[in-house]
Amino acid sequence: MAAADKPKTRWHVAVFLAPAVLVYTAVMIYPLFNTLRLALYSEVDQERIWVGLQNFRTLFGDAIWSDQFWNALANNAWFFVIHMLVQNPIGIALAAILSSPRLRFSAFYRSAIFIPTILSFVIVGFAWKLILSPIWGIAPGMLDAVGLKFLYQPWLGKEEYALTTLSLVSVWQYVGIPMMLIYAALLSIPDEILEAGECDGITGMSAFWKIKLPLILPSIGIISVLTFVANFNAFDLIYAAQGALAGPDFSTDILGTFMYRTFFGFQLQLGDPHMGSAIASAMFGIILIGVCIYLFGIQRRLRNYQF
Amino acid sequence: MNKVRSATRTTIAAHAVLITYTLIALFPVFVIVINSFKDRRAIFRDPLGLPNEETFSLIGYETVLKQGDFFLYFQNSMIVTVVSLTLILLFGAMAAFALAEYRFKGNRLMGLYLALGIMIPIRIGTVAILEMMVSTGLVNTLTALILVYTAQGLPLAVFILSEFMKGVSDDLKNAGRIDGLSEYKIFFRLVLPLVRPAMATVAVFNMIPIWNDLWFPLILAPAEEVKTLTLGSQVFIGQFVTDWNAVLSALSMAILPVMVLYVIFSRQLIRGITSGAVK
After folding, report:
1. How distant is the Cα of A168 from the closest Cα of chain B, in angstroms?
2. pLDDT given for residue B275 in this prediction
3. B210 and B245 share a domain?
4. Which end of chain A has the smaller Cβ count within 10 Å, N or C?
């Protein structure tokens, strides 16, 4: 049938594609490149002028800007490290337990553990802020009950703990996603492979380490890159819990909050869309590098394991 | 005998771990909700106690309903989420059908172009999006949010739906063509009903991020009459930060709609994630 249509222009193909392509191009792709372009301009006397790479020179060279940028980038990197070291292993462990055969109530556990993931950052940020607050006293009270009161600190208010605390809150919220994805990957492992392992005497924990883990490596790769993109693009939790100034003393400032303050302005600082675009371009570069490392470095190698 | 006992022990250990983690996951929500029903004294004196006749109070909810326009915020969130989802599903399915069904020049390239947005977050382009919305006068309208969320949701929708549409039988579509159905009718009458499960998956994936987003409402639509529930509760809590009853009640009220959605759609959501739609 398709061959019969061929001589005519097939307008319906264009009609089917047009709405999606138009909206996507106009609202996503065009602004993306326009932002990269705006990073090369600046505003002088209310006029937009071309300045080339000047904004980037300011961002990386000027002490006030570059300190803030590297601080935000380092904080963001730490944010990502905590997610990789805490969120993903817990997610994998929970998935491994959930996927064990004949476990009762597993649907209930799955749904319950996933609940934090569906809450908004505003709820999560404030809820934890209240719970950890020294005024309310839930956290100190509970530590007191188990005789560990000396461990209590106003975690969100101390420069040295605030970022780690917020990262752990974010881990608490998002552990459901790696759990679900790994759970799905574990269920898709064919029974024959596990049975073959059993015949060779590989059961229990060693079956997990020797058979299942290598087989779910591709899923772990996907989760890592999803975590990477989400973390280097995060904003809401920090904003909801610590405000746009990412206190105390910028110790929880990440690239998202830094970009927001710069381009939108905050309190006494005036918004500068061009510097904001420069930061956005840097974020774009970082995310692109991460995704490319995954696509060309990690994913190819992991493919060897697939069957 | 020994083997049986060690199996029981493993099961108990598994349940212990899972119960512990479930408690960790639910504890904050539980604390917020029970305290929202207590008077101020009880909130501080006994934060972990359930409300009883003596401590029960709805003062926080009264403040929230008097001071904040939560019904309007809820309505705005509802409009934005429902319209965006409809557009994502309609436009996404149409494009997915074109990519899956027809062979034309640039098909693969178009697929790759649309897939770019899966990995690159739309937030990077915020500066230019804001500028565009200002110049078209769409700032502080729900339309601006709907457009952004539609664009954000389309890449994954096209990707998932076109995988499904490749599975729809050719015989059925060709039978439709022989009966003289136009390509549009084939799409709307024959193909769409068959990919309904995949549409539901896409809808559930997009629903929660759209409902919970803070970034775009904050930047594109911060005016009072177009605030979404997420932004509205954020601003409200910021203003009433010392009124603990009001803050706890506002948080509980913000939790409620998502929980209702989750209870309705959790099966769909979990099936969607575990069916490998994201792989």
Report:
1. 12
2. 66
3. yes
4. C
